[in-house]
Write a structure and sequence with these properties.
By secondary structure, this protein is α/β, with parallel strands linked by helices. 33% of the residues lie in helices and 22% in strands. The chain has one domain: Rossmann fold, CATH 3.40.50. Helix 1 runs parallel beside helix 6.
Length: 213
């Protein structure tokens, strides 16, 4: 079975990257994690990817300074050289320019730790707690030039408990990220038309229990 060559972009530990790599080991998974790229040479996820037999590249962003265009041109060149067809952002701490987004339009996914359109941007768990919401969660969406605004592919919800801290809520949400990101990647890789009007038309993956047995 021909599988879609997929790159994962990371900046840190690579938790969601590891979930994607693990899912792609299934023989019927429609995407192959062919490359992991980090903009930081010390990202912990690079070692995890290498240990799993996945090719890795480092395109350091710091030497480019404020020249975002030059950095993205170098990144894009690495993706093209590896024959990448889909890109998954997994803790990639860069806001991408319209230039790069346009070149991967419809073929670049991101995972966000909130139920979009609620709480786009950073510090989502703290903001959810401050707002007093009873339900929180995570979203996989296609990347568009506007931050966290692309068509939604998948969401999972978790309850916000009375004694939650940002750390406990984050851990419960992260467990669901590891479920819905591989599911959304598989859905897109199979060529299904992505949802274009928000969560009502998106793939909603039921939350799994994260309690210890």
């Amino acid at each position: 079975m021909a599988r879609v060559r997929t790159a994962v972009l990371i900046s840190g530990r690579g938790s969601n990257m590891a979930a994607l790599i693990a899912a792609a080991k299934a023989p019927d998974f429609p995407a192959e994690i062919a490359l992991v790229v980090s903009n930081k040479a010390d990202a912990g996820g690079l070692a995890l990817a290498a240990a799993a037999g996945v090719a890795t590249k480092v395109v350091e962003s710091r030497p480019f300074g404020k020249d975002r265009a030059a950095f993205e041109a170098a990144l894009h060149a690495e993706l093209e050289a590896a024959g990448v067809e889909l890109v998954c952002l997994a803790g990639f701490m860069r806001v991408l320019t319209p230039w790069l987004v346009a070149r991967w339009s419809g073929r670049m996914l991101n995972i966000h730790p909130a139920l979009l359109p609620a709480f786009p941007g950073l510090d989502t768990h703290e903001r959810a707690l401050d707002a007093g919401v009873k339900i929180h969660g995570c979203t996989v969406h296609l990347v568009v030039p506007e931050v966290d605004a692309g068509p939604i592919l998948a969401q999972a919800a978790v309850p916000v408990l009375p004694d939650d801290t940002s750390d406990t809520l984050s851990a419960r949400v992260l467990a669901q990220e590891h479920v819905i990101y591989p599911a959304a990647l598989a859905r897109l890789a199979r060529g299904l038309k992505p949802a274009c009007a928000g969560p009502a038309q998106a793939l909603v993956v039921p939350a799994r229990s994260t309690e210890s047995p």
